[in-house]
Amino acid sequence: MMNEKPSTSPVAPAIEPSRRGFIAGAAAATAATASTLPVELFAQVAGSDEIKVGMIGCGGRNSGAIIQNLTANDGARLVAVADAFQDKLDGSAARGKGLPAIQAQLEKEGKSKQFDVPSSRQYAGFDAYKAVIDQCDLVCIATPPGFRPIHFEYAVQAGKHVFMEKPVCVDAKGFNQVIEAAKIADQKNLKVVVGLQRHYQNVYLEAFKQVHEAGAIGEIVSAQAWWNGTRPWIIPREAGWSEMEYQMRNWYHFNWLCGDHIAEQHVHNIDVINWFVSGDSAMGGNPVIAQGMGGRAGTEPRTVGEIFDHHYVEFRFGPEHNNVYMNSQCRHQKGTMSKVAEEIVGTEGILQLGSGRITDHKGNVKWQYRTERGKADPNPYQVEHDELYRHIRENKPINNAYYGAKSSFTSVFGRLATYSGKEIKWDDAVKSNFSIMPENFAMDAEAPVKPGPNGEYAIAIPGEWPLPWG
Ligand SMILES: NC(=O)c1ccc[n+]([C@@H]2O[C@H](COP(=O)([O-])OP(=O)(O)OC[C@H]3O[C@@H](n4cnc5c(N)ncnc54)[C@H](O)[C@@H]3O)[C@@H](O)[C@H]2O)c1
Fold first, then answer.
1. Is pTM, for the whole model, over 0.85?
2. Ligand 1 near 57 CB (within 6 A)
3. Is residue 125 lining ligand 1, measured as CB closer than 6 Å?
4. CATH architecture, domain 202-379+406-432
């Protein structure tokens, strides 16, 4: 495997024992596979803060998330890190990414003792995640989302607490895998937080109370979600790269890695609508029917990847949620309107989450979110880690994987609707268990999609693109 360090091993190397044996369950799980341990052994020892933290994916998001994680608990130490590429581990301190950047930031904040990652515990390659998970108590996962179900399942099987970024799946197999792993995480009393940070952001939490406790907008009748943003990065192809390496380095442009931008970014807004329409902050919800339109209309060369540059989807919730419609739009086209927001329309008012305001149908303001006088709101990216540790300490259940999976798969469901141009049903999509992941993971393995002889990738044609379940 290219870029793999000799130290990479699927078997956990011996490491020093935890100082006070922070977690009975996690430590026990490190020593044996989950299937051989009774569930009670995974119960947490509440009250201790000493945690060995692992990190999978050493890119932009995790280089920040790991600082937030370690900031949330002085007793946490980063002990092992994995990335598909050695150069990502080595990173660029100037660009704030990779291990040197993380170490420098911790030093700056007076937290040097929380960085404990000798080169023997830095792992590169597709299997590197195993060695990291095997020797930590809690793992922060921020790789391209195609890998999320595999990494989450392994972490849960090994009895580890998890912070994982959104989206958590790109296909039905991944969705089903995450839901099954979430159930096992509950049985093992593991704590799971997903990086859909609006759930940890005051304006959303207060607006939710307005809708579901104060009844400020009456009955919900429809909703709208937008992620109209900018064009994503492109890494030019280099001589000597395999097709697999090109796709891994340009993961945003390939569905098996990214899920298309409707999943990769717009999931945030879709998730808010699922949350507010279902009224269920723990389990979330999902629409049951979708139909939409989309394509690749902009100037992006087709040699770059296979994703659309715009999607517009009409999702419909079930009768238990008044058959509410969600209209969702996301776009990456230069020179077009930018908007990232959500809006919920009720019988007695409209909630605009972008501005944190509820108006009646004549435009009169009924409620306006305000921060506490003289104070800025806490950073939701920090709060999600604070909450993860609070739930560990207090031994209270927290498992965001259910709503994380439903919202991620709602975005995938939207992609299936825009690619096919058909009206589709949630249950058919879930039951199909379709997978778009490759069979083998190696830089010299066959990539699941390939460019044609002209170097261009095929882009779905609505009306012709076949649904995975026929
Ligand atoms: N919640 C948010 O607001 C937010 C913001 C940014 C990114 N994210 C999410 O974080 C995730 C990562 O995004 P990013 O911007 O950090 O991307 P990135 O490309 O900067 O980092 C991803 C890293 O994962 C590595 N990687 C790829 N496959 C791997 C594998 N199989 N095992 C180990 N490492 C692997 C890559 O080499 C790369 O270093 C995405 O899911 C993204 O949606 C969330």
1. yes
2. yes
3. no
4. 2-Layer Sandwich (3.30)
